[in-house]
């Protein structure tokens, strides 16, 4: 079997994601053969999680949009904050969607025919994306809407604590 035949027989992971979301009572919207979006209720606000599949690379891209519109004009603070946050990320990264003027978490995984654990990966990725967005929401909020300096906004998250409460 050549590569082109192999790609044609591949199961679209968006179908599997749609089945997973339906089985877990999420309301999703299929936006095409290779894209689906789901709204997930978060601690601070609702987040839109986008899944898109790039067939030629066999790559699944996940984006989690945080609904925080910037009110500051100085974009350098936004990019300084992104650099500081991403420096400490293990999985995925944050970027800034300039068209929507909102921060977004992004992550990609390669899919292959022998991947029998896609459902577990989907659950794990959704969990990581939501946790990271909720952890960073207050930081993005004060920088994007109040103009707080990124280092000052991140300080509470970077502090090491000792003892127990």
Q: Roughly what fraction of the amino acids lie in strands? A: 25-35%
Largest sheet: 6 strands, antiparallel
Structural class: alpha+beta
Number of strands: 6
Low-confidence stretches: 4-8
Query: What's the SSE pattern?
Result: HHEEEEHEEHH
Please tell me what the overall shape is: elongated
Describe the protein in words.
With 165 residues, the protein is of the alpha+beta class. The protein has 5 helices and 6 strands; from the N terminus they run ααββββαββαα. The chain has a 6-stranded antiparallel β-sheet. The termini are far apart. Mean pLDDT is 85; it is low at 4-8.
Notable traits:
single chain, 165 residues, alpha+beta, Yope Regulator, Chain: A, six-stranded antiparallel sheet, 5 helices, 6 strands, 41% helix, elongated
What is the topology?
Elements (H helix, E strand, L loop, with lengths): L2 H6 L4 H11 L4 E5 L2 E7 L4 E9 L4 E8 L8 H12 L6 E5 L4 E9 L7 H29 L3 H9 L7
Antiparallel strand pairs: 1-2, 2-3, 3-4, 4-6, 5-6
Helix pairs in contact: 3-4
């Amino acid at each position: 079997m050549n590569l082109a035949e192999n790609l044609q027989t591949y199961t679209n992971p968006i179908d599997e994601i749609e089945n997973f979301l339906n089985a877990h009572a999420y309301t999703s919207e299929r936006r095409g053969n290779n894209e689906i979006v789901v709204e997930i209720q978060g601690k601070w606000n609702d987040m839109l999680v986008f899944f898109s599949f790039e067939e030629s690379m066999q790559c699944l891209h996940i984006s989690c949009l945080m609904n925080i519109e910037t009110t500051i004009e100085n974009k350098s603070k936004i990019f300084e904050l992104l650099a500081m946050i991403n420096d400490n990320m293990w999985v995925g990264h944050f970027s800034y969607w300039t068209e929507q003027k909102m921060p977004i978490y992004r992550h990609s995984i390669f899919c292959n025919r022998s991947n029998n654990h896609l459902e577990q990966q989907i659950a794990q990725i959704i969990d990581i994306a939501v946790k990271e967005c909720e952890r960073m929401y207050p930081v993005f909020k004060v920088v994007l809407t109040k103009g707080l300096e990124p280092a000052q906004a991140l300080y509470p998250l970077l502090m090491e604590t000792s003892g127990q409460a």
